[in-house]
Amino acid sequence: MVNVRVPKVVPQPPKFTSFEAERLYRKQRLAAAFRLFAKFGFSEGIAGHITARDPENPNHFWVNPFGMHFRLIRTSDLILVNHQGEVIFGNKPVNEAAFAIHSQVHAARPDVVAAAHAHSTYGKAWSSLGRLLDPLTQDACSFYGDHALFDDYTGVVLEIEEARRIAGALGDRKALILRNHGLLTVGHTIDEAAWWFITMERSCQVQLMAEAAGKPISIEPEYASLTAKQVGSHHMGWFSFQPLYDLIVQEQPDLLD
Asked: In a 10 Å sphere around its CB, with 0-12 CB exposed, 13-18 middle and 19+ buried, how is residue 139 labelled?
């Protein structure tokens, strides 16, 4: 029997000596996340937003300009908004729904650096069922016991109180299924939040396909819980995003402008 040795030393998120350096890093990662969302077909007209908390002013967050296609967003296009909805940096409009939802998620979760929401095809389809994801695959186990359902829909989220309810439903978890709406993911880094969204969207696709084909077999709770610890940590979320970041920067280097 051959024993496979898994490397014990893996890359870690960088540390910074200045707010300026960390701010630039976060903005570049945020722009890359938008480009990847466009590449994977997560854009839907003017819908969708990803936010990143500013490292120096944690009550401010960076967000995409309202009405700008994800594929066109560069680092320099991002705008900075405070929790009162005032634009601190930039001269482009803010999506009211983005402000409402993300301001309340960031306020309720001081540990969250980034939050992602888009009207992706399979996330929307799965959300219409009003169910949590089952642990059908190793990847889906990232969300085992760590995602929730907002089991309500009252229209476009423009009211702060509705957004506060969404943040409450998320609780301390990494992801939320918004019934009849789509997916929301969060992370301690932009990389993590973006990766959870990407792999959650694919997990929705897999479960829809599996249930259309027959009766899927779920992973046993004991092993689903074990796998969640192996693939669902903050670090694994960050690390899983790194190949995608390298790919999109090589393909679309203008995102760093």
From this structure: middle
